């Protein structure tokens, strides 16, 4: 290959990320004149080809390759950006490419004739750029940038139909919940920067990184104490970031609402790739975590897995079921990280990407036909509601087949890829629980229960949508009937369905250790393997799945449903234990009230002080004015007035009459004489 | 006459031209103003290009670039000594970015003034006077000269708000004027105090030279503000602390900090769009610049002593401003409060006393300079069209004004700190720097950084909420069809102003070294000055 492509894997990986960006720019410039999506499609085809045939083979199971460039200098610190290629990053980049490509093809048919299509392709390419760049970032700050950018692209795509109120509410919620996580991420970065002085992933977590316990052998002198409290905090901060992005309980609330976006978007971003970025991040920085944080991750993961599965049981909306299923599966991956087997987490991330993407694409095909029927017949019903479906396998057999394969993979049925990856986590958790003993066993036991619940809820979806009778069957006629999806949609689905089988990941379809992915990422765990667990746990899971499907079949197709429609528990699960309402009342409303109150304070108290000051000055001015008028000017006036009065008194003397003057003169004369006599 | 003098006094030529031309040529005023501001921007860019980033400046006169020194006022005062006031201007890494920013925002302001038809002669003349004043403030290195420019700036602003403003313009203008004057009058006292405490080592006379004031050895022993062994106290508070607080108070009004911010929403809401742009884009930065250039450089000992309180004020401004913005129903008022919140980051970063924090604060000032200018310009767009900016009177604007909505969305996201745009770099490094302060033992606890980052979350909340309420959903306007036809999309002139601004935010977000390259040496020097006192 070296002769064929004279570019290094590093440059090729940069190119993989930049091609979609180029497509984004071209699409942005062309605007409405270009709606075919061919530019984005070509970009992703090239990226996928490069990734699959050049970068991945060149790096997988070889030494890591890095590229570092100084981005800018702040103070005395050089901030580097660059590319880090190792098994983990090239794998993630490949997964993103290989999922994005079918989704692009599928979108061409699925989104056809939508009025804002140019925006769709633009945003989709932007997302691919951000996501593909995130995977190969070498610096935590750089990761943070692309981390936020994927969130931004997701915001744009959830709100793609911006005239729909629920869609814009949903994208706001998604962005804000993710912001909480971003703040965690940022503080984590600040903690590491302040204690270690670098944000370079290789210097932090690489073979000779300061967080790597084995780095002493590599001549690294500074190794961070595992029990340092700041390290625990940093771990928790990064985990908070991952919790928001990977929809972990209780920050998962944005993901079900995000289903307001187009289904193709849900499949790519909100099922297969972006939401898995949190898990990917935790795998990248895994050496940072100490036992406390890992335990926390495992517990939150378990909580998410079980709550997601319970919520999925109560949903009627086909996309919502899949969304909660995603949340639940992300919980599994988190447990994988929490028990230290992050290779299992990445394995599950990989297999999950395929089957969950496929599930969404199949759901999209069904919704597409339902919406078509609704429009054609001028009916009023929710095209995503399971209650309006039923018996669809007769009309859409290929879609049914694809969805069944994906469902088997999700349920972890033998011979599927899901079987391998789910087993790796559940068995690993069991070994971990047995090693630590005591209440730690709750986690593997919960995971086993969740696995069976998973089989049940996905079975329920299949039974309700594809079996039984179609509700609108009598409306269908030769003129308009429910049809199979067009080939542009079917082809990607079939491709993904093939990837759902075990051989895509392992030629030995029953042992996950034999998978090329697990061998490439191999992590040495502290706890010993329990060979017998590899036998009986898969057996329990498979039998549990079959039993649950039988029950589901009884309930949903044989009409032996045991619960009344208004059953409290079902309602509770449907409403996610009223978590959204709780948040609305406790957080949203209190912040709104606080802001209203502060504005009141601002007007009345803070600005009030200004007024008070003004009034005070004015009052003083009035007082001084009064003083001036009445006292100071009063004195002046008094002098003037008394002078005037005196003058007024003597004025009478000057009256112009001769006898008066003579009389006055005589009086003065007499007074003079009198004075002389008395003297 | 040096390049800086030309930069400062160029608008005065425009002013003379505008005043000389008769009213019949009134349509030419805006072209004159535009021509001169374009020229000014050209000079500013030339200066930027030729500025050597390695020279630190701050307290070493010879390190300043484009330096001009001339004796201005010399007066023999007999027993008191000789009065020595210099015309001393120069640039270092701290003032250079602000000069370029000012030239740019001024140009935006002129562009936004295109449709002013109420006595354009006076309007453009005052605008040019304001231009000279702000350029002078950022260049002046003599405290007396600085004060002159500082006061000159107030005068045109008062009339610009008071005559060309909205309904309550007189109220807003006088509030703004008195608030700022209150600060600057006290500042004058400190200036005089410093004058009598500092002597020029060369001539032995008292001096207003700021750089002499930064050197502890220039202080007269036993003088009021003397550096070492100062026993002066006022009401039990050391004299230097008093001086620092008064100067900080003067600049803090400009920033503005909570609780001295209430002039800002009123002034912004009443001011015409171009004045809002200049107010938010340049004048608030004078506050931050003054704190760095005057408070921190002349009183480094007090800077180290008080930084905990300054950071606390920063935090309060961030959170209080953001929560208030969340409560607003008037778009312009919301943006005014968001300015309070974003300028809080500047104060927090400066108070952190770390290289990352202060650089982040400077970057945030630059970034906020044109982002807030763009925000006010965008508000002006709909206000021009329908004379309303009440958030709930608009809905689904995206349907009828797609280009406008795209611009608003980009500027909103840039302001809330989306990576790729400049505000992100500023805020992220303020937070990282503040966080680092504990390791550098500058006395800022980490919870302050965390509280500051809560402001980043809140800014996303109010911007996105506004976006959702005004721009998305089904189109529904208070003014019905009349509004729908009045609300045309952005025209060529508006795009011509917005696109470069947005591009600049993007360029600075991607290539922050454009600023940091010129800034780093000066910031490190500043930290060196303060460090001995920590």
Walk me through this protein's architecture.
The complex is a heterodimer of chains A (679) and B (534). Chain A has 679 residues and is an all-alpha fold. Chain A has helices at 9-30, 38-59, 87-110, 117-136, 140-158, 165-196, 201-205, 229-245, 254-257, 263-272, 277-284, 291-313, 318-338, 342-377, 397-411, 417-436, 442-466, 487-499, 516-521, 533-557, 568-574, 579-651, 658-678; strands at residues 65-74, 77-85. In chain A, strand 1 and strand 2 form a beta hairpin. Among the domains of chain A are: 317-564, no CATH class; 598-678. In chain A, helix 14 (342-377) runs antiparallel to helix 18. Chain B has 534 residues and is mainly alpha-helical. Chain B has a domain at 300-534. Chain B is built from 20 helices and four strands. Chain B has helices at residues 3-20, 29-50, 95-112, 120-139, 143-164, 169-197, 210-213, 239-254, 263-270, 273-298, 300-326, 331-352, 355-386, 397-400, 402-415, 422-436, 446-471, 480-486, 492-510, 513-530, and strands spanning 65-76, 82-91, 233-234, 237-238. In chain B, strands 1-2 form a two-stranded antiparallel ribbon. Chain B is globular. At the A-B interface, strand 1, helix 5, helix 6 and helix 22 of A face helix 11, helix 13, helix 16, helix 17 and helix 20 of B.
